[in-house]
Amino acid sequence: MNLPERPKYPDLPRLRIVDPQWVTFEGKQALYLRDPLGLSGTAVLVPPELSPILSLLDGTRDLAAIHAELTEQVGVEFPMDRLGMLLQGMDDSMLLENGAYRAAKARMVGEYRDPPFRRPSHAGLVYPAEPDLLGEDLVGYANSEVLALPSTAKVTGIVSPHIDYERGGSTYSELWRMCADAVQDVDLVIVLGTDHSGGAGRLTLTRQNYATPLGTLPTDLELVDGLTEILGAENAFDEELHHINEHSIELALVWMHHYMGGRAVPVLPILCGSFHEFVMADGDPGADDNISAAIQYIREATAGRRTLVVAAGDLAHVGPAFGDAEPLGAEGRELLMSRDEETIAAIRDADAARFFALSSTEDDIRKICGLSCIYVALRLLEGAKGESIGYQQCAADPEGGSLVSIVGAVLWEG
Fold first, then answer.
1. In terms of CB atoms within 10 Å, which of 39, 120, 256, 345 comes out highest?
2. pLDDT (tens digit, 9 = 90+) per residue, 21-55?
3. For the residues 307-312, what does the mean pLDDT come to?
4. Is the same domain home to 357 and 380?
5. What is the span of the domain harbouring residue 29?
């Protein structure tokens, strides 16, 4: 008797965190799914009638149960064998958390940890990989006079964009030139970056050093080990692979390293996952045990050190490119600026609770992708005061109806 070949995908498929996008393929709408880490190099197109399958791939249902719910509850008639083929394709594309992705992840973790540093993933793409050309490139973004900091200001925090330099270069430049002299005595940098693929409330560490074209910034392993005890090794490192291609920390550190003259200042790089669940549940990220304990540990462990906290986060992501129905016109831009200014005021006051509440009360309609990393930074900087500079609304589609807003901010001891 010939038994049917067992499918490659797991018995109880569980979808990874992905960024689904509607696209037009061969004249038809489809949901485009790809592995955010790029492990497979392939993607899957899901027809509209099957899009409800995504909510069913939670690791509790087998093929028969998924098929039954699609048929009986959602009202979608789809042959079970074709549904199995779709799941197999998703697993081949590393979209299932409990399938082929596991082996690929283990292999990639080893490859990432083997070299002495984390290789810059955006050198040659967003900025030049050669030190001399990089310096020329960064200097070329200066197009305004630099505001002077108060003479007594001891800079303790910086909110930096993480958008590409082509669009955000003038804000990066104004920000880092403004605070260059004030951070020369820093001997530790806590750098918090948006993890665009991160799980809910995750704080993800790495023991790898971060490299830029100017050299290597050593990771403070004592702090990493201390935080690992607080968070638990699984929570702290389960999403470590996100450090490989995540651009947020890297794009801020390149500017910092340049304006520190290439000095090998120790860093503590932390990727901050999504706060969307806190927003939608009217929750308080400060009440989360892991987040509050991590903040308390960092405060205590860095007491007495000349520490700089850097949050690498952008502000709003609005318009059709980010799932909104309508493009922004002049009136929409003005409204966005008004709402952003409230958020920026909370940043200037280092008021983490108000900063988060502004997004929570509007159900995060601006989709502030720096929400988590800026929040954690402001918690670490409580009592500080500062100034914001370089607000921009950057086009995110050819028509200019989708926008990413960014700002720079410098904070100092109050």
1. 256
2. 888 888 888 889 888 877 888 889 988 888 888 88
3. 98
4. yes
5. 21-106
- The pTM (predicted TM-score) of the whole model is 0.88
| Dist CA 143 CA 310 (whole Å) | 23
- Classify residue 10: in a domain, yes or no: no
Q: How many domains does the chain have?
A: 2
Per-residue pLDDT band at 414 (split at 50, 70, 90): low
* pLDDT of amino acid 4: 45
pLDDT, mean of residues 379-393: 96
Within this chain, do residues 213 and 332 fall inside the same structural domain, yes or no?
A: yes
149 plus 193 within the same structural domain: yes
Asked whether residue 8 is assigned to any structural domain, the reply reads no
| Average pLDDT over all residues of the chain | 93
pLDDT average, residue stretch 224-234: 97
Residue with the two structure tokens 């690498």: 312
